[in-house]
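Tokens for Methyltransferase domain-containing protein. Go.
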Amino acid sequence: MSEGISKPRNNACDESTVSLDSVNAAYSRWAPVYDFVFSGPLYFGRRAAVREANRLGGKVLEVGVGTGLSLPDYRRDIQITGIDLSQDMLARARERVRRKKLSNVEALRAMDAAELDLPDASFDVAAIMYVMTVVPDPAAVFRELERVVRPGGKVIVVNHFAAESGIRAWGERVLARWGDYLGWDPVFPKERLFAATRMKCISEVPVPPFGLFTKFVFERPKDGLPA
């Protein structure tokens, strides 16, 4: 997991209950147990995103690569760049690449997801798993993903999105009181994701456990993005 520094917010769709400092602190705490957490209930969404990326092929950017849990699951003919803001996470990812001899991992870089130091249209696919609810400015992150995938390229998003009603919605509102400490936003509606992008959503699929997460696939128009 990673996050990006917020740019000035222009509308309510950009608002988040987490701050940059809180996320940094949270993921310093998470780093030692990150593999355990992501090997459990978050495994299914991670696997779904990697399968989609493997089907599409090409050059892949993984935003919020964390400790690199997903890296061994990519096809070896896929070129992967991973970014994360947390140096603690990246140190573990580099060790995983070394241990697993993952020669297709081209780079693991510390980077702000909201201000990517990457060229325009330089990737075929961008994958962002369980990140949108931990960034201070989700819209800025999504605009950057639009920019760095090529025309016709895909952006794969796996995330938890807020329930509209029921006991789950109540529980999410309660958790939101501690969003800053947790380092993620429990009440992130999927409409905020759609409002943040000009790309076309071509797939929306719930993923286990219990449909708590959703995998979206967005496509950048082949003729470029509208103004």
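Residues 134 and 184 are 4 Å apart (CA to CA).
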